[in-house]
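thread: overnight batch results

M.L. [08:02]
morning all. the overnight job finished for the chain we discussed friday. pasting input first so we're all looking at the same thing
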Amino acid sequence: MLETLGVLLYAPWIYLVVVLSVLLDVFVPLLPSGVVVVAAATLAAGTAADAAGFPAPVAGAHLPELALLVLCATTASILGDLAAYRLALRGGRRFDSAIARSRRLSTAQLRIGSALARGGGGLVVLARFAPAGRAVVSLGAGATHRRAKDFLPWSALAAVVWTGYSVGVGYLGGQLLGAGWVSTGLSVLALLGTGFLAARMLRRRPSAAPA
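M.L. [08:03]
and the structure it wrote out:
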């Protein structure tokens, strides 16, 4: 088992998997991009390779792997948000009709639109952790023709915060608990717990309250 994890750690395609999962989950929220990032961070901690007898690329340090992982996940998140925003901006009527059929999406769209109009983009950052929150924010901002300068800076901040938290949780789990599925599973649970709290905060947050 540990040998398999060690091999995966140094397979270049693991970063491609991270990029594709984060890039596409704005369109397919069921994709477990957070799980992929956390698992990759746990492996990038180097404990899997050390336990399996594989030498780390940089002795005593794992910054290159972590930096590359953060760069890949953050860039993919920003590009995915931008693609969803532009797509919804050009096809606003179709997205409006789709959102109108869902009471939850309609309510979320109103809250997000109100927050962006007031410059309260902190809601965008919070929604990045909630299940499907990223899709609602990006598509909703485009469908309601919000200005790019009101949305994209907050989208970039949300990407940095989400990636930093996901990588940090995975890395910390790997360092404290060692390599294996237990540390990865607990790190994933921590990420899912944060998403649950973010979703509850979004539901409780009144639309008229400042972000």
